[in-house]
Amino acid sequence: MNLVWYRNDLRIHAHRALQEALQAEGPVTAVYFICEDQWDSHGVAPLRRWYVLHSLNELGEQLAQRGITLHVVDAGDFSQVPQKLASLVREHGVERIFCTREYPLNERRRDEAVAAEMDKQGVAIRGFDDSVLVPPTTLRTGKGTPYTVFSAYKKRWDVWLEQHFSIPGLPGSMAAKSAKFAGKAVVDQALGRVSVPASLTDLWTPGEQAAAQQLEYFVGRHLGQYRKHRDFPSLTATSSLSAALSAGTLSPASCFHAARQAMSDAGARDGAACWIGELAWRDFYRQIMAQYSRLSWGRAFRPETDLLEWDNDDDLFQAWCEGRTGYPLVDAAMRQLVATGWMHNRLRMVTAMFLSKHLWQDWRRGEDFFMQHLIDGDFAANNGGWQWSASTGTDAVPYFRVFNPVRQSQRFDAEGKFIAYWVPELKALDNKTIHEPWKQPLLVPDYPAPIVPHAGVRERVTESFKGAKQAYDQLQGVDA
After folding, report:
1. 285-325: per-residue pLDDT in tens?
2. Sign of the C-alpha dihedral, residues 111, 114, 119, 125?
3. Rounded Cα gap, residues 362 and 118, in angstroms
4. Residue tagged active-site, from 157, 204, 281, 342
5. Can you give the pTM of this predicted structure?
6. Catalytic: 281?
7. Geometric angle at alpha carbon 72, from 70 and 76, rounded to 5°
8. Nearest 10 degrees: CA dihedral of 109, 110, 116, 117?
9. 388 catalytic, yes or no?
10. Which of 434, 457, 443, 441 is nearest to 327 (CA)?
């Protein structure tokens, strides 16, 4: 018996572990472990849980139609997985396990414990890197170290894919006889423990079928103009595929394949190349996560920045969370996040930099808040984005760079459409005043004044980062 162990790869197509299991000798079954305590400890958003569980239901039915039974086991947390998997292996006479590799520290430790347990039983495990396009330990600098600068990584990433990329297919050897979705009751019970308002769930459609349709729609309608339009939150210009990629209802290989095919059209070439670059960023953060365990401990990638003394003012943090900072674009973005479970990528940078630099709050508080709300909450991408914005991570923007929230607003929401939608108390203002409503306070008596001034932020940030570096050098015995 061959067992496919599903994790964040809830699909049938472009799934190398499933493909290899079907090609191996013997029948195939599958398993997924629900670890709600693990979700709790990592603050996983209820909306993301809802998306994963509904996608799991679709996967179970799709596998059953193809003769493969999906078992779903309530495991509590990762520590219970090795023994529960061992029981399943013994019960079904499993000889080989096939799975997609995961890279955060807790997941790696879980898999090491599973490997040790399976070794006792003589069960072989084969892992595949289907959650990325380039396996995370493949690309190295000339010194043999991991890449920590994206531009250099991207050049090697492009070359490697040109030589090695292939997309797994769906073998024709799936059994014609249908099976039973053995885990449906367990999934439904878990869904009963998830409370998400209809105002959120009505915005999203879980599952592989919906993800495939969205990819086709994006490539056909918006990919060609992606570079031109992607930074403007009032436009429908991004792929809306981040949740599918995070839960694995869509593979990055399918995205890359579709974008590369689109590049044969001269009109779509520039947009497709730009979107491929976003897939490269996704791989970049995963290879960092796989090779620098301290990120999984809540540490900054740049160790000197762990010495920064954040203010951690609860009132300022709460104002940011609730979208009442007095900066319209920041507030609109935060309200979008809470209301939809998603935020435009440009605005993730704006809001993260505002929290960490204008408000001088620990970036980890913002990272946690995002994970508690995002339907696409992904540890590597979320951590990478937050550390980039806070200038504590790999390929970080210069620490003295601070986005001006007014200029960002004027540049990327010039007509104020996005702001007017999410901050309706400002919708009556003209295109100029809506970006700086504090200049006409009588027109918007219900909207707060800016909670901090923009002036002086860059200077404070610069001095703080310099001080942390000097303190770090002294601790290391470096003559500054």
Report:
1. 999 999 999 999 999 999 999 999 999 899 999 999 999 99
2. negative
3. 41
4. 281
5. 0.95
6. yes
7. 160
8. 160
9. no
10. 434
